[in-house]
Amino acid sequence: MAEPTLPRLTPKLLAAFNTLAPEAASGLRRATLTLDLSALRHNAMVAKRAAGQRKILAAVKADGYGHGAATVAHALRGIVDGFMVASLGEGEALRQAGITQRIVVLQGVMNQAEARRAAKRFLEPVFHHASQIDAVGTVGFGLPLTVWLKIDTGMHRVGFTPQEFPAAYARVSTLRGVRPNSGVLTHFARADEPDAAPTQAQIALFQQATAPCAGELSLCNSAGLLAFPEAGGDWVRPGIMLYGGNPFTEGTAAAHDLRPVMSLTTQLIAVRTVLAGESVGYGGRFTAPETMPVGVAAIGYGDGYPRHAPDGTPIIVNGQRAALIGRVSMDLITIDLRGITAAVGDMVECWGAQLPIDEVASAAATISYELMCQMSGRVARRVVELDA
Ligand SMILES: *Cc1c(COP(=O)(O)O)cnc(C)c1O
Predict the structure, then answer these.
(1) Domains (range + CATH), the chain
(2) Helix residue ranges, H only, the chain
(3) Residue 13's pLDDT is what?
(4) What would the pLDDT profile of 339-370 be if each residue is shown by its tens digit?
(5) DSSP string, 301-337
(6) What would the pLDDT profile of 295-341 be if each residue is shown by its tens digit?
């Protein structure tokens, strides 16, 4: 694999980032998540250019992919046209936080009480199963409910099949509490892969099924938005690209001009010499092939660093690229410091401005989405604008 391109990071930005970084002065040595809102807005502008005339529903489910849904929504509200969450509770929390734009709720509503909650807050539930239409029934909800229907065009997870769809759409149109001309959406299963055929088939099925529909249409996630301009629709639904993750199984985020929003950093709390033949950490997974310096950093799976990261997982120490060695513990990791200039107190970056999260995800056999979502509440958070 070619050496991935690092995200655009000028010496000036790096200096700003490093001085902002560890709370060394206060003696606080802990994992810190730095969220760069200027990168978030930049990525949203990349999405906006790709969207053309289409409007943007920014995916902020799972607490904004771990970045903080309200923080993200406030930062993006001048750029995007609405937001998409998984659950009613996530939608209500965004309203509570003062977000007034359209909010689509992917799981939809399961009964009349939930439909009333959605209507009250102007949340737009997605209907993906007939049982939801049955449950909502023909009563009114005080305020008319804007709803979406989901068609299963190939993901085979949720949604009405193209065969079921016309009847479901007709039935929803007769519900008294629901606004006419519901929106219709579908979700791509394989838009992130090099083979375009499965996505093209999904697009064709969707276009066919929705030809008689007068409401708003939406097809694209991040990968669909960037790789399938022909998909069309009225709304696009980017998620991962906003946060600077690579939406594709190949290549890099930087190649799409996406910048990392989240940087996970901590400090070296010890630098020690491990003798040739000695093993490091639980299970002795790494044995020193020679007498060597090993750094210990204050972060572990208790903070959300992936426990399955193997020896060799890249990590940045004091601006230099180093490698994880030994098993990840709850609060600590160990780092090979051979050839690295480092001292106690130096900044360690697990991923972010200096190291694409996708590289760490791929080393740990997962995807950036999961790393972002699994940040623990223990991690300190701060919001910055590096490029302001
Ligand atoms: C999460 C999600 C998205 C966003 O996907 P990304 O791959 O993060 O861009 C879009 N649509 C639906 C239905 C989703 O669940």
Answers:
(1) 37-245 (3.20.20.10), 262-384 (2.40.37.10)
(2) 11-20, 37-51, 61-65, 69-76, 88-96, 112-120, 130-136, 165-173, 197-210, 222-227, 357-363, 368-373
(3) 56
(4) 999 999 999 999 999 999 999 999 999 999 99
(5) TTTT--TTPPTT-EEEETTEEEEEES---SS-EEEE-
(6) 999 999 999 999 999 999 999 999 999 999 999 999 999 999 999 99
Closest C-alpha to 239, from 254, 255, 220, 252 = 220
How many Å lie between the centroid of ligand 1 and the Cα of residue 1? 27
pLDDT tens sequence across 183-238: 999 999 999 999 999 999 999 999 999 999 999 999 999 999 999 999 999 999 99
CA 69/CA 49 separation, integer angstroms: 23
Tokens of 71: 């923080």
Q: Evaluate whether 367 touches 360 at the Cβ level (below 8 Å).
A: no
Element (H, E) at 382: strand 380-384
Distance CA 244, CA 40 (A): 7
Taking the C-alpha atoms of residue 48 and residue 81, their distance in angstroms, rounded to an integer, is: 10
User: Is the CB–ligand 1 distance for residue 151 below 6 Å?
Assistant: no
What would you report as the CA-atom Rg of the chain, rounded to the nearest whole angstrom? 23
Asked about 61 being catalytic, the answer comes back as yes
DSSP 178: B
**CB 299 within 8 Å of CB 350:** yes
From ligand 1's centre to the CA of 106, what distance in Å?
A: 10
Nearest CA to ligand 1 atom 10: 221
Are 127 and 117 in contact, with CB atoms under 8 Å apart? no
Q: Is 191 in the pocket of ligand 1 (CB under 6 A)?
A: no
Could you report the per-residue pLDDT of 47-93, keeping only the tens digit for each? 999 999 999 999 999 999 999 999 999 999 999 999 999 999 999 99
Question: Is pLDDT of 135 > 70?
Answer: yes
